[in-house]
Amino acid sequence: MTPALVEVEGLVKHYPGERLWWGLGPPRHLIRAVEGVSFRIGAGRTLGLVGESGSGKSTVARTLLRLTEPTAGRFLLEREDVFRLAPEPLRRLRRRMQIVFQDPYSSLNPRMTVRDTLREPLEIHRLAAGAERDARVAALLQEVGLDPALAAAYPHELSGGQRQRVGIARALSVQPAFLVCDEPVSALDVSVQAQVLNLLADLQQRRGLTYLFIAHDLAVVRHIADDVAVMYLGRIVEQASAAATYERPRHPYTRALLSAAPVPDPAAQRQRQVLTGDVPSPANPPPGCPFHPRCPHPMKNDRCRTDRPALREVEPGHAAACHFAEHA
Amino acid sequence: MNGAHWFAIVAAIAWSAWAAQWLRLHFERRQRRATAGTGRRFVRPPGTLIAIGILVFFVTVAVAAPLVTPYRPSRQLDIVRLQNAPPSWGHPLGTDLYSRDTWSRLAYGARVSLAVGLLATLLAATVGAAVGAAAGYFRRWTDAVLMRVVDVGLAIPRIFILLVAAALTAHLPLAALVLLLGLTSWFATSRLVRAEVLTLRERDFVASARALGGGDWRIIFRHVLPNVAAPLIVSLALGIGQVMLLEAALSFLGVGVQPPTPSWGNMIAEGRDQLATAPWTTLFPGLAIVLVVMALNTVGDTLRDALDPRAGAS
Amino acid sequence: MTEPVLRVRDLKTYFVSEGGGTARAVDGVSFDLYPGETLGLVGESGCGKTVTSLSLLRLVPEPPGHIRPGSLIELEGRNLLTLSPRDLRAVRGNRLAMIFQEPMSALNPVLTVGDQIGEGAIVHQGLSRRAARARAMEMLQLVGIPDPELRIDDYPHQLSGGMRQRVMIAMALVCHPQVLIADEPTTALDVTIQAQILELLDRLQRELGMAIMLITHDLGVVAGTADRVLVMYAGQVVEGGSTPDLFHRPVHPYTEGLLASVPRLDQPRERLTGIPGTVPAASAWPTGCRFHPRCPHAWERCRTDEPPLVEIAPGHSARCWLVEEPGRRRPGASGVTR
Predict the structure, then answer these.
(1) Which of A190, B186, B228, B285 falls 20 to 30 Å from C316 in CA-CA distance?
(2) Helix, strand, or coil here: C166?
(3) pLDDT averaged over chain C?
(4) Distance of alpha carbon B240 from its chain centroid, rounded?
(5) Measured in whole angstroms, how far is the alpha carbon of residue B28 from the centre of its chain?
(6) What pTM was estimated for this model as a whole?
(7) pLDDT by residue (tens digit) across C112-146?
(8) What average pLDDT score do residues C265-289 get?
(9) Rounded to a whole number, what is the distance in Å from the CA of A266 to chain C's nearest CA?
(10) Do C283 and B42 touch (CB under 8 A)?
(11) Which residues does chain B have within 8 Å of residue A101's beta carbon, measured at their own beta carbons?
């Protein structure tokens, strides 16, 4: 198997729950945000990571970038294990991986102009100085479709779409190979969302970027992802190419998600399969299969309550974590 | 008191009015820029213009004291005829028990009171911001230890510490007074800064700076502290007023600024016994303190509206 | 022909800023809402849909906002804009109710769920506390909350997002209002929970026979839930019609642009068109047709004259000069794939 640009193996992240002894003692329980996630992304490809709140997808993003330290696992970026790096080599490697955040209103420092924001990464990594730095800033702005004159603006003078573009420009300024997009369009209006998605697709083509695209909107993921991984309560429950996931979903949760997603066409309305119960909390995962309390699969039985199904290959290149994945 | 001094006083008033107008327009322009297009109205506290004018006036008088006053503050004029003389053309604010011109003492006293207020508050703000930022950013043990220190500091009444310090030394030099006032005033500020920092460190732009490879110091000085600046400056404005009142109280009690150096506090103290016969010796410094503290509070509100970047967020 | 339960004519809500500028957030909106139907109000941020919904209940803060004279809001024949504050309070929550986007900020964190639901019954129907509690229990069951006898004494923070939204719906419906205004009721919820809430609203509408005005930016939600749809842009209604008309036979370029921007689950991957430019600020609407700076078909007339809302087919109206001059439409410019 050809080595991929991004290889994640057994990523685990546990957060401590409320601590005893006024915040200084051991935690009372653990919040199991991510429980053993593995995937590979080939160079120039996009993996869509889909899930609802509590699924752990944002935690995966933050852990990969070591914004928070993982509890266990390996992350190989261009064959280097990011999790084992010491601070200085990590700082250098950070140039190869960047992140675009969801909220355009909090992802930019309100006290820094666009120019300051874009200059900072160039300063940190000593990539350019003086006039060349300003030239690079202007080039970046143009690349993301913004007028270079906006460099003097403060974030509150820009629209949501413009701020998001600045965030993308900032991520690109260090010439990364791998870009994690954490719900980059969820907070944008529909028409602006389309603009930004097109921009991301263009950038990927032009710069040969590899994306981990995290979203809860299945339709958006369908438009940009080559492969899809569906997360539920900290684990991947289905993993396949985008086409296979959308046309032949194998896990009952994936099917429920696809069924629940609203389609903007009154003629295409179908009988929605509505799940009962709430999205579970990672502080208190159910025993056995994490999805079993809400699972509508007709073949659900006692085994689901005790045996946690492993993520196994159901068809070549298509894996699902369900005891009855073959009987979809 | 000759024509030149009167002219200088009128000039100071005119300059204060002009500067106040200019400053207010400047703040308003910033505020307008921040709230443009959001439909959010910005409320100007009433009397901002007067407040800024008062502050500029007293600062100018303090700085230019020799120009606006005819006499040195400790100069005792005609001891017999000018003792406790009421306000007149020659002495616009009258004279005190020791035949010293009240207006001159007020002007020079402004230097002391304002300087002590400003310096002590700056000291308090610096220490408070440093402690608050460290506690909020590094959390866990640093936070726990520092906040317990702050708890202790907040529990002990300031006046008590200051009185004890004053009692232990026969004569408290001005520098020591500033230090003492500053080092006992930072506790509340640190709590304020810590609260801001706790929210700020979770913001995406801080995470982004870390993802770009920025180290802790860069993040604290370029990202966290500038965003704490707004509430900090506001608490600074209010804090100056508080310290001035504290200094006045201490001087009134006899343990602050020592005579013959005039400060508004000890002027009030010295005039206390003449309240019935020569009220102007106490009234004018008291009025000055009231005006300056009220002005500072009003300006503090205006500053918050002008500086708060959140005023612009939709 | 049934009478509309809610009639709005030429609603204008303006905001005055201290600098003297006026933001014309809602600038002449008219529509009818019939009993038992769901009317979708669709638009992006800055179009005025939320201000419209707040104006209906007169919840717009009076300075700096004000509803212009000449606007008409008639609920069951009564003009809401001329009611005294006391009469208005008797209408709010009783005949006309509203649910909001963020259940956590719409619910009072220090009151139990039961108290908050029962409050409406006590105020509007004069029920005793015991009777109100029984009614609250009924409502909890009606909105599908499991174990209502346990939940009734819970505080909002003890419930999940979907549960809180159900509680908010229960609060709104406790007096069986004729009209429910739902302002982005599912935007803050997960997809599977959104499906639950939409199904609930559907069921409640059938059971209680009320009219729903659903305000959202999500075209998928509107397609599945609304009978008729109004599209708003820059404070005005730019297109209105039945849901099939709007989605399959859109006329206004903005509607077309929106439909072309939405990624589709059931279609293969292709490039989305988007709409160039950004929404203008409410204090400075463009001259002529407000959409002209972003419209692929615009010509001189669009820059100078504001088009009126005209009916192009029974029940289908649009505000665009292309209605009069369809020849001006540039082929392939809207990027719609049908």
Answers:
(1) A190
(2) helix
(3) 89
(4) 2
(5) 22
(6) 0.85
(7) 999 999 988 898 888 899 999 999 999 999 888 88
(8) 83
(9) 5
(10) no
(11) 204, 207-208
Nearest CA in chain C to A54: C190
CB contact under 8 A, C25 and B37: no
DSSP notation for C15-79 = EE-TTS-EEEEEEEEEEEE-TT-EEEEE--TTSSHHHHHHHHTT-S-TTTEEEPBTBEEEETTEE
Quote the CA–CA distance of C255 and C234 in Å, as a whole number.
13
Q: Is B175 on the interface with A (CB under 8 A)?
A: no
C64 vs B230: CA distance, rounded Å: 26
Candidate ranges A86-95, A291-300, B167-176, C102-111; pick with highest mean pLDDT? A86-95
CB B136 within 8 A of CB B194: yes
Rounded Cα–Cα distance for residues B62 and B68 (Å): 9
Tally Cβ neighbours within 10 Å of residue B5: 17
Asked if C264 and A190 come within 8 Å (Cβ–Cβ), the reply is: no
Q: Is B28 an interface residue toward C (CB < 8 Å)?
A: no
Rg of chain C over CA atoms, in angstroms? 21
* Residue C31 near residue C39, CB atoms below 8 Å: yes
Is C179 in a helix, a strand, or coil? strand
Percentage of residues in chain A with pLDDT exceeding 70?
98
- Predicted complex ipTM: 0.86
Q: Give A313 to chain C, closest Cα distance, Å.
A: 24
Instruction: Note which residues in 189-208 of chain B have CB less than 8 A from chain A.
Output: 203-205, 207-208
Say which of A264, A267, A278 has its CB closest to residue C162: A278
Residue A284 φ/ψ, nearest 5 degrees: -140, 65
Cβ contacts of residue B42 below 8 Å, gap of 6+? B31, B32, B35, B305, B311, C18
Which pLDDT does position C333 carry in this prediction?
A: 64
CB atoms within 10 A of CB B65: 18
Residues 6+ apart with CB under 8 A from B167: B255
Whether C258 and A190 lie within 8 Å, measured CB to CB: yes
Q: What is the pLDDT of residues A2-40, one digit of tens each?
A: 668 899 999 999 988 777 776 667 778 888 899 999 999
Q: Is the pLDDT of residue B1 over 70?
A: no
> Residue B310: its chain A contacts at CB < 8 A?
110
For the segment B226-250, the average pLDDT, to the nearest whole number, is 85
Q: Are the C-beta atoms of B65 and B110 separated by less than 8 Å? A: yes
Question: Does pLDDT of C209 surpass 70?
Answer: yes
Residue C268 has pLDDT above 80, yes or no: no
Residue B37 contacts C, CB cutoff 8 Å: yes
pLDDT band at B40 (very low <50, low <70, confident <90, very high): very low
Question: If contacts are CB pairs under 8 Å, which of residues 221-250 in chain A contact chain C?
Answer: 222-224, 242, 246
Using a CB–CB cutoff of 8 Å, tell me whether B218 touches chain A: yes
Is the pLDDT confidence value at C259 over 80?
yes
Q: What is the pLDDT of residues C229-239, one digit of tens each?
A: 999 999 999 99
Query: How far is the alpha carbon of A77 from chain B, nearest alpha carbon, in Å?
Result: 15
Task: Tell whether the torsion through CA atoms of B178, B136, A163 and C184 is positive or negative.
Answer: negative
> How close C274 gets to chain B, by Cα (Å)?
23
Q: Which residue of B has its CA nearest to A23?
A: B140
- Give me the DSSP letters along B165-201: HHHHSSS--HHHHHHHHHHTS-HHHHHHHHHHHHHHT
- Residue in chain B nearest A109 by alpha carbon: B205
Reported as type and span, the H/E element at residue A314 is strand A312-315
CB interface of C with A, residues 224-253, below 8 Å: 224, 243-244, 247-248
Are B256 and B172 a contacting pair, CB within 8 Å? yes
Q: Is some CB atom of chain C closer than 8 A to the CB atom of B32?
A: yes
